[in-house]
Design brief:
heterodimer; A: 276 residues; mainly alpha; MetI-like fold; 11 helices; B: 265 residues; two-stranded antiparallel sheet; 10 helices; elongated
Chain lengths: 276, 265
């Protein structure tokens, strides 16, 4: 029985390592400093040899910009949802809020992408733009952010809140002096996880925010951007071109490093929070 | 959420209005001849989910049992780290792995014209939901009170009896919500599937033939959204795909909540 289970479990234990190693090994020839800093994206979509470009800086900056925009939009909303949940909601409202958040989290990101495409790109005439991508990603990460914020607030012991109330603090003072100092690590953890999520979502921004090449730095928030995620996708479709393959693996590595960076720092923050 | 649903319904209304609900069972999808049957994509989605669950549930469960019952505790946290990292890998990267590693392998093994098929999609999906499965079941196993284990030991049960009679039934609600979460994720996953599934709009012939190129709802939306003009019938048919996806996802998460509420101790 034990042996059988171990055999079944073996792939699950070995696959993470195998995936990481495979990606890094594949990307090794294309990885150098030029890759990250260089910003020339030569050529066009129609498959000439240089179409894969050389640098990834514009893609990286596009991804990060979109992520930052999404977090800027979603964080205040998530915070206010969490505060509403903690301060004013009745138990039945709380239950409903949690249910809605879970359902929203279950809806496939590409559906959000579709809605964004109709509303933002076509009805509001934003076009394929950084702003549309940021807003859509913000909506995608909103449930994650708010449920994390709610949990962070819930972990505060009831005694603290009650003694603060007994001291006659107003609710603003309770939020600023009692809750925020106690809950910020949890909230920041949630934010970091959400950032990792926003970086790794591809489908919703594929046809709402990004183009393949030709953009090094978006002129305004209503101009299209390039992003790492979609760059990988476009490169993967070119398939046969060896340079494109190398570049795709390299972009995958860069993206992976970014995502892992965010989720690792979230993990350390969580450990710090538990130790305090 | 209601706004979102309303948008989908509104945008796909021309489609439902012109073709009616029976399009769900129609098996032809040729946008240029105004044939929009959703059946191939729905069957493709269902197959991909089934294959993914078939691989991921046993593996994930076994991994959870091994890591929380057999391995020492230091290994546990390392495995958890690994799993969280695996969960964090962006789906498009999985797509790359599928496209350039899995497909050639499948092609050689089964001697096919192309490796693009449902089996590949299912395998990639199983890799993606493995972490979810494992983390959820591990949590469920860990939450079982130590008294239960001790009581089982006192009754002289051996290891496998304890596992099957005590631990697994107790952890079942958590495991089930892991399964449902995994189902939801595999339902909505786009990029990885899109790269490997082959995008052929046809009901597999015969229907259990998983080695043929096929299409899922998500991959169809992703593949054709760029081509469809805003406001056209094609566009609203794609919106209808999105609506089907959203409704399925909502049903799944409602199911997950209903069940987990009933079994909370």
């Amino acid at each position: 029985m034990k042996i059988f289970l171990c055999l079944l479990a073996l792939p699950a234990l070995l696959l993470p390592l195998a995936c990481f190693f495979y990606i890094v090994v594949q990307a090794w020839p294309a990885l150098n400093w030029q890759l990250i800093a260089g910003s020339e994206t030569v050529g066009n979509l129609f498959g000439d040899v240089s179409s894969a470009g050389h640098g990834l800086w514009s893609q990286i900056s596009g991804s990060l910009l979109m992520m930052a925009l999404a977090c800027l939009l979603a964080a205040p909303i998530a915070l206010s949802i969490a505060l509403f949940h903690a301060l004013w909601a009745t138990p039945s409202q709380k239950r409903m809020l949690i249910t809605i958040l879970q359902i929203l989290q279950g809806i496939p990101p590409i559906v959000y992408g579709l809605c964004g495409l109709i509303l933002l790109v076509h009805l509001l005439h934003w076009g394929i733009s950084l702003a549309a991508g940021g807003v859509i990603l913000g909506v995608v990460i909103l449930p994650l952010l708010s449920s994390n914020a709610i949990h962070a607030l819930e972990r505060i012991p009831v005694e603290q809140t009650e003694s603060a109330k007994a001291l006659g603090l107003t609710s603003v003072a309770i939020i600023m002096r009692v809750w925020l100092p106690a809950a910020w690590p949890g909230m920041l953890t949630g934010l970091l996880l959400a950032m990792a999520r926003a970086l790794s979502e591809t489908a919703p921004i594929l046809f709402t925010a990004t183009v393949f090449s030709g953009i090094t730095w978006p002129d305004s928030i209503f101009s299209p951007v390039t992003s790492l995620q979609t760059h990988i996708f476009y490169l993967a479709q070119e398939g046969s071109n060896a340079h494109a393959v190398d570049m795709a693996w390299a972009s995958a590595t860069v993206l992976l490093v970014l995502v892992v960076f965010f989720s690792l720092s979230a993990r350390f923050l969580r450990r710090y929070e538990e130790s305090v | 959420m209601l706004i979102l649903l309303w948008f989908l319904v509104d945008a796909s209304w021309p489609f439902w209005h012109d073709f009616g609900i029976s399009q769900l069972w129609a098996s032809e999808w040729y946008p240029y001849e105004s044939l929009y049957g959703l059946l191939p994509a729905i069957i493709g989605t269902a197959w991909a989910m089934l294959i993914a669950m078939f691989i991921a549930v046993p593996c994930g469960l076994a991994a959870a049992i091994v890591s929380s019952e057999i391995l020492p505790i230091t290994w546990q946290s390392w495995m958890r780290l690994g799993m969280e990292m695996l969960a964090g890998i962006p789906s498009v990267v999985y797509g790359l792995i599928g496209l350039w590693v899995l497909l050639p392998w499948l092609q050689n093994t089964f001697d096919l014209l192309t490796g693009h098929n449902l089996l590949a999609a299912g395998m990639i999906l199983s890799l993606m939901i493995l972490p979810t499965m494992m983390v959820m079941s591990q949590d469920a196993l860990r939450l079982i009170p130590i008294e239960q284990r001790e009581a089982a030991m006192n009754m002289g049960m051996n290891w496998s009896q304890r596992l099957l009679r005590v631990l697994l039934p107790q952890a079942w609600p958590g495991i089930r919500s892991g399964i449902l979460l995994g189902l939801g994720r595999s339902l909505g996953e786009t990029m990885a599937v899109m790269l490997v599934v082959g995008s052929l709009d046809r009901v597999p012939q015969p229907i259990y033939n998983i080695l043929e190129p096929a299409q899922t709802l998500t991959s169809r939306i992703g593949r054709e959204m760029g081509e469809a003009a805003f406001g056209s019938m094609h566009f609203s048919a794609l919106m209808a795909c999105g609506l089907v996806l959203a409704v399925a996802a909502i049903c799944l998460s409602l199911l997950a909540q209903r069940k987990s509420k009933g079994f909370v101790l």
